[in-house]
User: Fold Right handed beta helix domain-containing protein from Gimesia panareensis.
Amino acid sequence: MHVLSFRVNRVFAVTVLFLLSEIVMTATCTSAVAAGARQLKPATYTFAPGPDFQFEFQSRLIEAVPGDVLELKAGTYHLHSGLNLVTDNVTIRGAGQDKTILSFKKQRDGSFGLLASGDNLVLENFAVEDTSHNAIKVLGAENVTFRGVRTEWTGGPKTTNGAYGLYPVQCKNVLIEDCIAIGAADAGIYVGQSTDVVVRNSRAEANVAGIEIENTINADVYDNEVTNNTGGLLVFDLPGLPQKNGRHVRVFRNQIFKNNLANFAPKGNMVASVPAGSGVLIMATDEVEVFENRIEDNRSFSVSVVSFLIYGKKLKDQHYDPYPEQVYIHDNMIKGGGTDPDGELGLLLKSIVGTPLPAIVYDGVTAPRKADGQSLTLANNGEVGFLNIDFSNLTPENIAAGKYRPSADVTPYRGTGVALKPVALKPHGAPEPSRNTTLNVYYDAPRKLSELKLFQGNGVSQQPASDVIPYDLITTLFTDYTSKHRFVRLPKGKQVRFKESGVLEFPEGTMLIKTFAYPKDMRDPEAGERLLETRVEFLKPSGWYGYSYIWNEQQTDAELSLGGGEIEVDWIHTDGQRRSTRHLVPNANQCLSCHSHHDKYVPIGPTAANLNRMFDYAHGAENQLAYLKRKDLLSEAPEMGSVQKLPAFDDPHSGSVSERVRAYLSVNCGHCHSPGGNARTTGLDLRYLQQDPAKIGVWKTPVAAGRGSGGRSYDIVPGAPEKSILMHRLQSNDLAARMPNIGNRIVHQEAVELIRQWISQMDRTPEAASE
Assistant:
C-alpha cells in the first residue's frame, strides 16, 4: 500500500493571507497598495521568538521593499533552515549581539544561516550561531554593512564547524565594524573577491584564520583584536577565481597576539596548511602595507611573506600572479614569537636555524621579471630578526649539497616603501520609493493553480489545456527521484526565438510549468502517482518570476506557496524497496539560488540542445524543435540536422562516458557553477561548453569548501575518484557538503557511478599517484 503523509509549513497560510489581503504592518506602517502599479512604502517590522518565526521572517524577506527595517527583539530564535534575502536597502537589526541570537543548531536545510544579495544592506546587533556551513554570506552586493554582529560555533573549535562567519564575497563598498567571529573552521571574518573594504574594531577568536582578506582590491583592516586563532590575520591571493590578483591592502593598529590554536580546518582546504602560531601571513598579494600593529607571542611566525608556490599546490591558472610584490612592513611592535614552530615548514626551519625563528620570514621567491629585494621593504620594526628562507633551493638534495643558503641579512630589504592611500567608503544611498515589481507579481498571482487553466479538468491527470504544449528534456535535473511533467504556454501569435546556446528566447507572456510527482511504485507505471507541487515561471516585461503551488492531499487543486513547504512522501523504488524523504518546496527567494544569472532570474532547462529529442504528442512521435517549427512557434531555427543534441546521461548510446557526464553536470550543476551563477565565486565552470580541464575541476583547488572538501585537495584528480572532491560532494548527506544543496536529499547513485567511471578513465598521471 502506498502511504504518503502531507505537511506544509505554516508559512503558506501566512504568506498567502499577507499577500492577498491588506498588508498589516507592525510599528510605523502605512498601506502599501496603490491603484495600478503599486508603490510600496518601506516600513519597520518587529519580530519575537516563537514557533512560527522561521516562516514569518522568511515571508517578510520575500516581501521586503527597499527601506524596510526588520527588528528582532531580544531572545533566542531557533531556525531549521537558511534564510534568503534579495531585496535592496534592507536593514536587519537585533537588540544586541548577545541578546538577539539566531540559532541554527538544529538546521536541516540549507548550509548557511543568512544568504543575501541585495545592495545597501545593513546587518546589525544580532548573533548567528551554529550553522552547518557559513553563518552570513553576502554575494555580489554593493554597500554592505556588518555592525555589531557576532557569529559563533558554540561547541568550541571543531572540524565540523562551518567554514566562514562573516562572508562578503564579490561585494563592493563593505564595512565590517564592532563584530565578533568565533569558531569558524576556515575564517571568522572573510572578505573575498571584493573591492573597497573596511574591517575595524572587531574581534576574531578561536577560528582557523581570524581575519582573511582574499583576492580583494582596496582594503583597510585596523583596530581589530585577533587572538587564539591558528593564523591571526591573512592577506591571500588564490588562483582559479573570477577576481584575481588582489592589491592595495592596509593592515594597521591591530592587536595580533597568541594565535597558537591547533589547526582544525578540514583537510584539503587551503587554510588547512596554515601553521598554528601564525601572526600575519601575506601570500601572493601585491601592494600590502603592514604598520603600527602589536604582533606578539605567535609561536611559529610573527610575520611571514610567501608566494603561492610554498604550498606545493599545482598551478593551472595562467592569469594568476603567485608572487607577493610591493609589500611594506614598518613601525610594528613585534615580540615573543617563533618559539615553537608548527607545520612542515616551521619544523624544517627549526631544524636548520633553531628557535626562536626570526620575527619576519620571507620565502625569497620573486617574480622572474623582478630583481631580488624589490618585492619586500622593511623599516622601523625594532630589533627583530629576519630570515630569507631561500625557498627555491629548499630541497633535501640542495641541503645535502650545500646549495641551500637561507639568509638573515636584512640589508637588501631595508628602506622606505610606498605608503598606500586610505580606503574611502561611499555612503549608502537613501532608498528610492519602491515599485517592487516582484512583489507586485506576487500580489497578482492566483491563489489556486486551477485559476491559470493550464490543465484539463482539475489537473490531476496532467493533461494540458489546448494552448499548453507538453515537452521533455534529454538530460534532466535530478530531484530525489521525482518524476516531472513539463509544459509551456506561449502567448497567442508569438514565437520562441531559436538560440544555439543558452535557454531559448521566449516571448513576453510565456509560462513554463513543471509538476513534481512521485510514482507510487516505480516498477509499475499503472499504479499512478502523487502530485507534489507545480512550479510556474512567468516572463513579464521586467523579467522572469517563479513560484510554487502545492497540491492538496485530495489531488483536486494546488495552492500558492511563496514561502515554500515540505511534503513527507514514501514510495516503492525500482529495486522493490520502500523509500521515503521530505520533499522540499523552495520559497520564492530560494528559487533564485539556482535560477540566477548575474542576479537575474532565468529558466534552466529548455535549451535547444536539451530539447532536440522525440516526444509522443497526441498525433504521434515528432522531434520537439521540429514540432515547434512546423507549428510556426519557433523562429530562426536552422535545419534540425545541424542543431546540437545534448547526450542523455542515462543512455550509453547517446555519447561517450565523458559526454554524458558533462551533460549531467551541466544540467545539474552548471546553472550555479558558471560565470554568472550563484557559485561563480568558486571559479568552477561546469557548463557543457566549457572545455578547459582546469575550469571544470581537474587539479583545481577548492574555494570556500569547508568540510565539503572531504579531506581532499582537488576537485578532480585524474584517475582517482576516491581523491576527488566532486565525488565526495555528490555522495555526501552532510548539509555543508552535499551538492546541489537544494532539492537533493537522496544520493543519485546512478550518476555517482557514471561520474566515478569518468574520473577513473582519465589519464592517471604520476602527480595523481602522489596525491
User: Anything to note?
Assistant: The chain is about 15% helix and 30% strand. The two ends are 50 Å apart (CA to CA). The first helix runs from residue 11 to 20. Residues 654-770 form one domain.
